[in-house]
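ok trying this again, last paste got cut off
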Amino acid sequence: MDPKNAAISKLYRQYVLARVTDLRGVDVGHFDFDPDSTLYTFVINADEQILLRYGGRDDESAETYFNEKSLQLALERGLAQYRLAKEGKLEPEPRAPAKTPADYPDIKRDIIDKDKCVHCHNIGSAKTKLAQAAGKLDKQVDLWVYPEVLALGITLDPEKGTVIKKVEKAAKEAGLKAKDEIVRLAGKPVLTYGDLQQRLHLVPHDARTLELVVRRGDAEETVTLKLPEYWRVTKIERRGGTHALEPFPEFWGKELDEDAKRKLGLKKEDFACEVTKFWVRTNAQAAGLQVGDVVCAVDDVTKCPYTCNPVLWIRLNRNAGDTVKVKVLRGGKTFELSFKLKARPW
């Protein structure tokens, strides 16, 4: 952001600004947020009532929705929300049960007890580890967090908060239009992209429809959108919570793009990832897998509707102790390897 932006500087002077770089003392139950964001902002009052959020990200970048125009809009709306709350016209939502980072055993043992800072991504990893340890993790449900509106066929204008720039697929079928401004989602107000993504995150996984209220011109209209089957799917392999998931696939790999797949004779929906590293001696490496190999099948599975990355597929569909068979492309030749999965790499 330009430090000389007069409009934003004027707005800042009406706020008390607090930068949090260590989450040890934060109630992360109340201040719930996407822990894989680069920057996340809460606008609150003295009662810690959350007035709005500014932040969030998509699969392409952690900075897609960060720009001076959207920040200025959020700051203006935050002040308006503050005035409404002060006048008793903004009903506070029920506060979630308190939870601190120390309530997660891994964070307490490995970070807090060693007097280290608790970073945002530590929260996502700790949630997965806690659920796994308790035997309560549903891999096909719990990992799909903070979905994107793109999956609904909605492209937002990054500079205009929740104003729609383009519609297609489910959004178009529901009657949404470009220039509509989303003002409520699932019955709750949304003022920013951060608000919208948080509300979308809280929509039940088994929901089949989603109610949106949009401002179209001078009027508001209610639209019911039919949710696609895999509407929560994003590239969760980039998330800390997924990195903590057992089992370890026995190699690290980068998913190939469409052009790279085409050169190998694969379709865009096919599994394909290039082995990038091992770091430690793994069972896959012992079986003969090498850096630069392309894995294109696991146990004869070559595609699935929610990922093209066999590394992620192994994490979501296999368990520690399982033996898997992978199909490998190397130097124009194809062969198969088998190896046993460990829970963790080290």
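PB: full thing came through this time. The domain at 246-340 is CATH 2.30.42.10 (Pdz3 Domain).
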